[in-house]
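Lecture notes, unit on protein representations.

Consider one protein chain, 385 amino acids long.
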Amino acid sequence: MAPDEFQQAWQAHSAQTRVIIDADLLREEVQRDQRQFNTMISYRDFGEVGVAVIMIPVWFVMGFMLDLPWTWYLSVPVFLWIAGFMLLYRKRHQPESDESEGPLLQQYVERSLAEVEQQIWLLKNILWWYLLPPTLSITAFFAQVSWQSRDSGWLYALIFFVLLEGFVLALYGGIYVLNKRVVREQLIPRREELQKLRASLEQETTDEGINGQIALPNLPFPGKIPPAPCASPVQLIVGLVLFIALMLVVFFIIYQAKNWDSEPGIGQHYPKRAPFQAVRWEDSQPEVKANDQWYRLIALNGIPAKEIVDFSKETYGEKWQKRFEEDLVELMARMGHPPEKTVTLEVQSLTSSEKQTLKEVRMTYANRAAIRSAAQARERDAAGE
């Protein structure tokens, strides 16, 4: 027989090769793989919903304690959206019962294939339902904070915004790429594996084969796909606890940064708040910016501005202006009149003798940060001259 004839005979024999597999063993393997996959997905979804729910009160506490602007709270509906979307999606895609028609083994394969398709859809569209909403809310917050710091210079505000936004885009971009990789390297191969098994089962003419055996035209698993990592309940709880601890550490750092002063021993126990968006001076008379307008300050909570300035001069010497601008809470407290979170300002227009009273003016960290940034910019400009 010629070599070509040997080759044709071998190919014909190979094409007719059928692998005999015990139906019960194959069903158990498919069930085990399905349970592992469902457990992994359930833990992941539970973790995402749990983190989103936990972040809602944490977000309110951080916003209140740090006196953050209103755009900070735009993330709250984002957390609600993520948790609600995940719960609704899981409810609408509950696995079907096992009482449908067809071989039992094929039912398991069909269900596993449907679950994999759902996860592929979720991760392929993760940008729209998971990444884009928080990106927009965080961008709005960074934009407002940068806008409030514009008094220290537009270039500084722009660089500040670009750095913060760049970090967010890099973080979420990495999450997007990671999920695309999971789809490409784990879910799509799993789908192809199940599709091959389904196609092989569809060629069988009996429900469970003959004598509990299933003859497959070819081996549907040419290679072993690495199983997706599956966290245990203990690992999930530990992860949530560590996440909460990390958020508390971040909260502490932000709080300390808000109340940090460059000189030890001064203002360490007083909130770094201010009712003014900016401060400038006409000799010893403070001119303040409130509600985006400049005024001459007459009194604060009924205390004349001249009295406050004189006390600052007597207490802090050459740094009286700096303490008035950046440590007003401490200054007023040392005078025996500690301010609350809102104050009453008596002001006079810079263009006329008209006076007015501004009530319930908020003392905010953002105002104080803007004043301090402006002072630092003036110091840099003076050093460069």
